[in-house]
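User: Continuing from earlier, I have the next pair ready.

Assistant: Great, send them over.

User: Here they are, in order.

Assistant: Folding the first of the pair now:
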Amino acid sequence: MSAIKGQKPWNAGTSKGWIDKRGYRWVYVTENGRRRAKRAHRVEMEKHLGRPLDPWEVVHHKDGDTGNNAIENLEVQEWGEHTIGHHSGARHAWESKRSMEVFANLRENIRHLRRVNVDLLEATKLGLGIAYDSGLNDEDYVVKEMRAAIAKAEAK
């Protein structure tokens, strides 16, 4: 019998997930109010690090056993490093090499944007201080916009 609309089922949160054909355990997690499936080793590493993993970060099983999700057996590697470790000596098609290059450029662009965002946040905070020193108050449009931008940047 299913749960009544608006109520949680009696067994919610008790699932151990399932194992796919490659041996990875999948579990359901709730992110941003939405339920989604995620590989268990990534969930464990995110809990351990206390932050979400970036898309280019791969969780590597040191002993090669995809069922062993003990934190001592897991390490975070970048996608390219992980690929090289598993495919050293292999020949890659041009498309594979090109996709690795594109991902490397994407990672570098994201790092650059994060550094710029930090600089912009600091500059906005400095500008807000100058605005207060020049006599503007919380009712002025510029101050409202700066405070909103700072709040939005710090919420992430």
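And the other member of the pair:
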Amino acid sequence: MLCDCVLFIVERVGEKVPFAKKGRFGVVSGSVEEYFCPFHLQIETSSTDDIDEELLMQKVTESL
């Protein structure tokens, strides 16, 4: 069964997260990518201020 929906992943690591824990994020994000694969778009950010609906729609449109 094919799906006509758009799947995107937003990965957020907060600014207050210690450097060592941020480094471990790469290990975990790989597992997340495998679980949700295939997906159309992946966005990495450290602040929710970096993301808004307009930006998401623009990125999704560009990825299609």
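Worth noting for the second one:
The chain has two helices and two strands. The first helix runs from residue 19 to 36.
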